[in-house]
Structure formats: C-alpha cells, structure tokens
Design a protein that fits this description.
By secondary structure, the chain is α+β, with helices and mostly antiparallel strands. The chain folds into two domains: 1-29; 44-180, no CATH class. Helix content is 34%, strand content 31%. It is built from four helices and ten strands. It has helices at residues 2-33, 128-136, 157-172, 178-186, and strands at 44-45, 48-52, 56-59, 67-75, 78-86, 96-102, 107-111, 121-126, 139-145, 150-154. Strands 1, 2, 3, 4, 5 and 8 form a six-stranded antiparallel β-sheet that branches. Strands 7-6-9-10 form a four-stranded antiparallel β-sheet, with no helix packed on it. The N and C termini lie far apart (71 Å).
C-alpha cells in the first residue's frame, strides 16, 4: 500500500514537472517571437527620432569576400530599408538601382532615396504597398546596380523569416520622443 502511494505521488509530480517544462518551452517560444531586436538611440535623423532592427548580413554571390548588410528602420510612421555593400568605392546613384526578385517570379524595382554616394548606401522609404509586398513574399535575390559593378545578394529561408519578423515588429513599434522623457525626468517632484 505504501509503495502504491509513493508511486502515485511520483507519478503526479512527474506529470506536473512535464507540464511545467512544456509550459516553460511554450513561454520561451512566445517571448522569442516578440524579441524584435529594435534599437532606438538618442541620436536623431533629420531632427527626428528613429528606430532600427538588427542588420542582416548578406553574402554577395558574384564577388569574392564581399558582404552587404540589410537593415530596416522606422522614423515616425514610415519604414525604411537600408542596404550597404561593404566593399571599396561602391558608388550608388540616386536612381532606380535596386531590383528585388521574389520567389513568385515577380520583380520589384526600387529607386535610391539617398543622394549619390560612394560608401555603398542604398536607402528606400517603403510605401504601404511596397511594405506589404515585402511582407507577403519571400525574396530570392537582390540586385544592386552601381557605377562599377552589379552586386547579387541571395536571401536564405532563415533570412526571409527574419525580414518578415522585423517588418512585423516595426509595424507595431511606437517611436518614443526622448525630449519628452528627459523633460519629465528633470521636473521636480510634487511638493518640493
């Protein structure tokens, strides 16, 4: 009888422990899906607060030892896509210089919103339609056209998932106004 009670207690504790572990795993997965990696610093861009996601490193496939970074950002309610080719003297004009090839076969052409530069920067403010197209379609290839050379960046399945996650996070993210926060911190407490 005593052994039966002991086995019953161990069984109940085992079931409870298994449920607790399963719940912990589910909690961790829920937290991971909302871990966006969005950073908002005190720096301003054109006198406005901005936030950005963790950059994704993309390998340039048609050039050895060259990489590019793709980063998404938000200023006010506008989402931006930043791409920088990490190579020497990559001059990008302010024109339609980027094509995104989706796995559906569609191709989207993007115009650089950043001025002519030789630091390899491409910047595009995404319209709602462009945002949704990126959100709803997986990217196969990004082609960036420069004065000297064209760069081909292949996007993996994992990177497509990360881009979707970052777009979701940015759409929900609210930019905080650092000036108001500082002003509230410096105000004296009531009754002093």
């Amino acid at each position: 009888m005593r052994n039966s009670i002991l086995i019953f207690i161990l069984f109940i504790l085992g079931v409870h422990t298994a449920n607790a572990q399963e719940q912990t795993v589910q909690d961790n997965l829920a937290q991971a899906s909302f871990d966006c990696g969005i950073v908002q610093t005190k720096q301003k861009l054109d006198k406005k607060q901005f936030a950005s996601t963790t950059p994704l490193n993309l390998r340039v496939n048609n050039s050895e030892y060259v990489y590019a970074t793709l980063q998404l950002g938000k200023r006010k309610n506008k989402v931006f896509m930043y791409i920088q080719v990490l190579d020497k003297n990559v001059c990008i004009k302010k024109d339609k210089v980027l094509d995104i090839f989706f796995k559906t076969g569609e191709v989207a052409n993007y115009k650089n919103n950043f001025s002519l530069n030789c630091e390899g920067f491409f910047v595009k403010q995404l319209s709602k339609k462009e945002f949704e197209k990126l959100r709803q379609n997986d990217i196969e290839l990004i082609k960036l056209y420069t004065y000297k050379q064209n760069y081909e960046l292949y996007v993996s399945e994992v990177q497509n998932v990360e881009i979707d996650n970052q777009l979701d996070c940015l759409s929900a993210y609210k930019i905080t106004d650092e000036v108001k926060i500082k002003k509230d911190e410096n105000e004296p407490a009531a009754g002093t």
